[in-house]
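Regression test attached.
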Amino acid sequence: MRRFLSFRDFDWPLLGMVLLLCTISVFEIYSATLHTKYTGFHTKQIFWIAGGLAAMFIFAKIDYHKLIDLVPWAYGVCLLALVAVMAVGHKVLGAKRWIKVGPMHFQPSEWVKLVLILAVARYFANLGGRSLTWKDILKAFALVGIPLLMVLKQPDLGTALTYTPILIAGLFLGGTNLRQALILLTCGAVLIAGVWSSGKVLKPYQKARLTSFINPDNDPRGTGYQLLQSKIAVGSGGIWGKGAAKGTQTQGDFLPIPHADFIFAAFSEEHGFVGAIFVLLLYFFILMRLIQNALTAADLPGSLIIMGVVAVLTFQIAVNVGMVIGFMPVTGIPLPLMSYGGSSVLFTFLALGVVMNIRMRRFVN
Amino acid sequence: MVQYGILFMMLALAAGLWRLQVLDAENFRQLAEQNRIRKEPILAARGKFFDRDGHLLVDNYPSVSCFLVREQNHNVDADLPLIAQGLNLDLEQLRATLRHYRAAPGYQPIPIKQDISADEQAFIEAHRNELPELETIDEERRLYPRDGFAAHLIGYVGEVSEEDLNNPRYAYYEPGDVVGKAGIEETYDELLRGQDGSRDVIVDSHGREVGYLGTQHAIPGQDLKLTIDIDIQRAAELALGDRSGAVVVMDPRNGEILAMVSHPSYDPNDFAVRINRTDWNKLITDPAHPLMNKAIQAQLAPGSTFKILMSLAGLQEGVAQNMHVFCAGGASFYGHFYACDRHHGNVDIEHAIPWSCDTFFYTLANKLGIDTIARYGKSVGLGQRTGIDLPNEAAGTMPSTEWKLRNFHEKWYAGETISVGIGQGAVTTTPVQLARMISGIASDGHFVRPHVVDQAQLPSSFRQALGDSFPGSGETKISLDPATWMIITDGMAGATDPAMRGTAAASHLEGVDFAGKTGSAQVASHEAVKRMGSGVDTRPNGWFVGVIPRRNPEFVVAVLWEHGDWGANAAKLAAQVATVYVNKKRQQERNAVEQAAASKPVEMGAVWTEPAPASRKQPGGHGKAAQTAQLHGGHFLIIPAPLAPAKAVASNQFHLPAWLLSWPLRFKEGRP
């Protein structure tokens, strides 16, 4: 079947849109770090994107079925890595998220995302589309829940939250019926309420971060301050924006980390409503294209994998942009393909590599 | 299905963007503008100090300080060598300063150098573009009198400390503010500090100033007129000289402090710019305590000056009048021999005060008992603060049986009373307490509250708060038997009278009613002196408290000369100050006369009897004056004529009638 594989079937329009977003990202990182100690991060981002592209092409060549076969091993490695973080992790700003291997820093929780997408796809594909029993659902919860709790412990609320859409997408597409869905929703609601009021799982600063978006004026120096400055940046951009490298909020250091978590605020300030809508449209088309690939995938694992990627990306876009415009709390979730950061870029391109692979094999069998 | 979900999410986000960027854009644009406006403080000048005659004591001078502002997007570390070079700073020290402020909020400017020179200012101006992080602030800096003149009285200012900021009294201040740290600067800080203004500066994205929006001008602090007389202060400083001790001069009629000196002193100008560590350590470890205001903080045995209180208690109790003691160089009480420094022979109260006979007062103390002495001590303010408007006044100690029980849980031994009778033992006082005590007794029981700042100029609310925050014995009146008053004041006059062979006879001032009491207070017992050897100064402290005139005085001086050996030595210092006071007063009276001579006719009232016509002109319209002696009253206008030997007249005491008669008089008004 290998002989049928061809880069003619590669999703070039998708790659084009992705690269367009990456270009916008590099320019905005350049603008946002112009006068800060982060100057030059845009070139680093270019290297990350180049590396991501290479990884994407390599992954596109590897049969995703092989990946699925390897997933139990990868899942085990992920759990080990998370345990290692707990044991010998490197503490940055009060959170243990990194392992130091030589000069490199690894943040395993990002890679867990990709492995989880594959693991969930494998799990539900093996069930073969039959209607789910409660036992199946519980197993799926354990599959995602164990690494999720370990990441939550680091503590990294943002990344932990991005695991949930993988599970939800899997359950949704894996054959949950309406009754089960309603019960799960109710249980989820009760669980969230319980976690919130118990005060054991979430640290006070995490709670404060989660609630300050409702009334940012209560906390004008902490996360409320960040949200307020972000809204001021977006709002003051107006329809046409202040122009590249001319955003007073971005350039005046009022906006927190304008090249990473708040890059969408920086972009909206400098390029206005028009620019922001253009970026949102790009994301929309990318997601639609991915869904189309999922629909045309050759088998159930393929579409499950793509829908997992779609779920993660959608969740991150919604939470990050929602945060920037004050709809959502500050959770530290980066905007895929826009925010500066190697882990995020590599994850996205690897995920796209798998998607490309699935697409290229759509006529196989 | 999923597509619609994503579409819905995108629409929600787009709606959010629409609301912010289109509907509310104007509002947010304004908020963004405000983010670019920085408030820069304009520091208020502190109030100046003037003496009672309006001579400037403490002034300000314009000065520029350099700050480092961190909020710009600029790497400061690379610039430090250049900054250190341009501002003549040590690079390591500069780095240490920045490290010190590392935890401070980013918007808070870091002070790097105060009081920079013109060259350094030029450096900052020339490097505006390379070093945008350097900011200068104009401020008014304190200029104090040189050589520690009145240093303890005036105090000094300094940066508010972190402990101070936790104190509710300092709620007004923010870190980096300058605050009065001692003396009048501390007590009157609220009035002196004024109110800082601010300027709204528009900054560009690099934090560079591009314009001003509005200015709120600073309100300078209130100038203060002190009760200090610069001439008397100078006399007191000179009289004390290199000696260690204190001088307090007060007007007993109203409590106005005319001079307050504590030596050794320090230069408060060293504090106006940050004082360096070695100088500071030298000041706080000096055994002579240069930072201590001994006039209000030295708590020492008063020695024989305490005998004024003993006399008061003895006379008021009706004991001392009838006491006749034979002094044979001391006397025995409770099995101990208590020495007097001379064989005085037969002594009564009239001689006991000028001679300072210890034997007499041992006996008197024994008769009165400690609690009677303590009661009178309390009534004249011993063992309590006077309530002077200076910080950290000491209260001294007035022992009693109750005091000993409370502090030592022991009973009072009658033998202890004997030493208290001559101002030794547990009793301690401050110079200002003694000044208030003697002036109250000499003023027939009218005690005043000492103060160093003219109270009339203060807002009434502040005056009220001041009284509350400096509690003390304040203004009181005790009733004195007229005979008591006479005997004590005459006794004190005898102390400076050579004819009486008083203890301060050498300090007699010819033609001045200068009365007082010496004191020589041992700092250690005879045994202790032997034990400590020659290394420690064990000479007694010399005291003198004196008044002019002896009754209802207008001048009181208290001198403490630490290790001055004899009270008579301290009396000589007091006499020097008193001489300057008397001369100044005479000078002022002469000036008043000269002023009158230079101006309009002076109106005078008089009462006289006729027949002899007192004036050259008969009052018109009244006909012939009655032949019998009759009381007349009226007003004269004195037409001033140039006084030929004006200096000769003024250098003597005024003989009013003599020169009054030589003046041409003009009758103005008729009989009553």
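Expected vs. actual: identical. Chain B is about 35% helix and 20% strand.
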